[in-house]
Amino acid sequence: MATPLRFYTNPMSRGRVARWMLEEVGVPYETTVLTYSATMKAPEYLAINPMGKVPAIVHGDAVITECAAICVYLAEAFPEAKLGPTSEARADYYRWLFFAAGPLEQAIVNRSLGVAVPAEKRGMVGYGCFEDAMAALETAVAGKTYVAGDRFSAADVYVGSQIGWGLMFGSIEKRPAFEAYWNGIKDRPAAVRARAIDDALMPPPGA
Q1: CA triplet 26, 85, 157: central angle to 5 degrees?
Q2: CA-CA 20 to 30 A from 116: which of 12, 75, 104, 150?
Q3: Segments of the chain assigned to CATH 3.40.30.10
Q4: Measured between alpha carbons, how far is 99 from 127 in angstroms, rounded to an integer?
């Protein structure tokens, strides 16, 4: 019997990234939808993720939180999906996946919150400044179909999600390199399925 896989999420969260990765992996999983005001902070879920945030997955006895970690874990747990890096692409795979999870996300969130790092303090933050983060992201995807090597990987799920979300909501600049990269991966069958599943779970307007 296959090891059970349970996914904790909310359709208005970063859980959409993990959902895409789960659909790419293609193994059965069960979904528990949590609410921000209640079940996400309930003792039962805090025992799984003390942060009281989604997403999280439970795979047998293993508990994995944080989107980037979930993407890497699933790629390694289900190698038959071929979402991990080839040996030649391993450096770019880890480099850009964790750049997107760390400096890039920090830069985008701070910008969205109106937090500006003083020039003399840029050495204290991992991303330096928003402009540096955007330049590095463009380096990661410019002229490429995939962010690491010549095939789609978990790094594309995570980096692509950051870019797609940013382009949709205006939190990153609409540079040709970003748009070309996102347009090349956004219509993958697993991505389309994942969006449809989460969209169907969205609360009705006014709810």
Answers
A1: 50
A2: 12
A3: 5-82+192-201
A4: 9
CATH number of 5-82+192-201: 3.40.30.10
Instruction: State whether residue 6 is helix, strand or coil.
Output: strand
Report d(CA 175, CA 142) in Å as an integer.
10
Per-residue pLDDT of 89-106, as tens digits, reads 999 999 999 999 999 999
Tokens representing 94?
A: 């880890």
Reply yes or no on whether the pLDDT at 206 is more than 80: no
Q: How far is CA 150 from CA 87, 145, 175, in A?
A: 12, 7, 22
Q: How many residues does the chain have?
A: 207
- Selection from 41, 42, 33 nearest residue 12 by Cα: 33
What pLDDT, on the 0 to 100 scale, is given for residue 207? 56
pTM: 0.95
Main-chain dihedrals φ then ψ at residue 146, nearest 5 degrees: -125, 155
DSSP, collapsed to helix, strand or coil, labels residue 54 as: coil
Cα–Cα distance, 163 to 174 (Å, whole number):
9
SS3 label, residue 145: coil
Burial (Cβ within 10 Å: 0-12, 13-18, ≥19) of residue 176: exposed
Q: Which two tokens stand for residue 173?
A: 């600049």
- CA distances to 134, 139, 195 from 101, in Å: 14, 16, 21
Architecture of domain 90-188 in this structure? Up-down Bundle (1.20)
- 85/194 Cα distance (integer angstroms): 22
